[in-house]
Amino acid sequence: MKILGIESSCDETAAALVDYTGGRFSVLSNVVASQIEIHKKTKGVVPEVAARCHVEAIIPVIKEAMQNETKPDAIAITKGPGLVTSLRIGVDTARTLSFFWGVPMIGVNHLEGHIYASVLQNTAIEFPALCLVVSGGHTELVLMKKHLDYKIIGETRDDAAGEAFDKVAKILDLGYPGGPEISKLAKEGNPKAIDFPRPMIDSKDFDFSFSGLKTAVLYYVKNLKPKTYNLKPDICASFEQAVVDVLVAKTICAAKKYKVKTVILGGGVSANQRLRDELSKAVKNLLPTSHSLLPSLKYTTDNAAMIATVGVFHAINKNFISWEKIDVDPNLSL
Ligand code: KG4
Ligand code: ZN
């Protein structure tokens, strides 16, 4: 079966063709038109600007992703959560194609896309599984007892992890998006240089909070005496370490409680090398009967291959929807 995935929930216009044959996934194409250069000027996404960029990019992106195929078996489309105008362009383009080609649609939650990104390595998820989803808009711990079955057991009470990276980057006058800029500078710094707080690390639940950590960085920077040397690498490394410590501690704690067999990482922040290294090390050392699944770097940030991959599981369950019925839901939850 060949599924065309389409993703336009935020600032990337993406389309991908994923083949599923004999239990194996292959990505036949994976096209992403990034708007990063445009949003760099405003240091963040302006929804109206993002929507206009999607309109321009979406047909060329789909055309490139389709290569020489005439039509896919189904179209998997992100229906939420995200920016309503951005989502609308992806969904309406997919509806048109569904009508024209006469193929069914599959409505996908963007976050389940991030959860399934690592399945593209053809490593099976063993259940129960725990997913740490860390993106620009979300930080969630999700328990899965079977495919496509999600229970949120913890989430952020304020800023998402990626949002904290982006806001701290702004405080430090670094570029957009903040995550890659911070992790690049962090490599040159000492993660123990500054003792930033680890919010909620010992709380008995699985919720997160990153807003206080961001404020701690803000006050640290404000109180710096006129700089005699550049402290940015140390601030980046210490901030990054604080975020990673909380994410890893909570994930391991939840994984023990629910006796999970797989720990899955997903979302844009899963591109962070310190998080990847420390989470996989902790799973190996502290959860000897579990294994970790990390997405390849190219499937960490927004892409449509992950949307098509979830689409395969929905197609197996015959979770199709017609172009007349599908709608966007900017606040869709798992
Ligand atoms: O999943 P994603 O591409 O978009 C959303 O669904 O939000 O995630 C984007 C987020 C941004 O906040 C970005 O700063 C963060 O992922 N990010 C990173 C890294 N690369 C991207 N955060 C930390 N370290 C990175 N290397
Ligand atoms: Zn995302």
Polypeptide structure, described:
- With about 325 residues, this protein is α/β, with parallel strands linked by helices.
- The chain folds into 2 domains: about 1-115 and about 300-315, 2-Layer Sandwich (Nucleotidyltransferase, domain 5), CATH 3.30.420; about 125-295, 2-Layer Sandwich (Nucleotidyltransferase, domain 5), CATH 3.30.420.
- It contains 10 helices and 10 strands.
- Helix 2 (about 45-65) packs parallel to helix 3.
- The longest helix has 26 residues, at about 230-255.
- The chain is globular and about 65 Å long.
- The protein starts with a strand and ends in an 18-residue tail after the last helix.
- Bound molecules: 5'-O-[(R)-(carboxyoxy)(hydroxy)phosphoryl]adenosine and zinc ion.
- 5'-O-[(R)-(carboxyoxy)(hydroxy)phosphoryl]adenosine binds near residues 136, 179 and 183.
Low-confidence stretches: none
**The CATH top-level class label of the largest domain:** Alpha Beta
Bound molecule kinds, no repeats: 5'-O-[(R)-(carboxyoxy)(hydroxy)phosphoryl]adenosine, zinc ion
| Number of extended strands | 10
How is the largest sheet built, in terms of strand order? 3-2-1-4-5
Which structural class best describes the helix and strand composition? alpha/beta
For the CA atoms, what is the radius of gyration?
Answer: 20 Å
What number of structural domains do the residues give?
Answer: 2
The general outline is globular
Quote the distance from N terminus to C terminus.
Answer: 25 Å
Q: Hey, roughly how much beta strand do the residues contain?
A: 15-25%
- Helical residue percent band: 40-55%
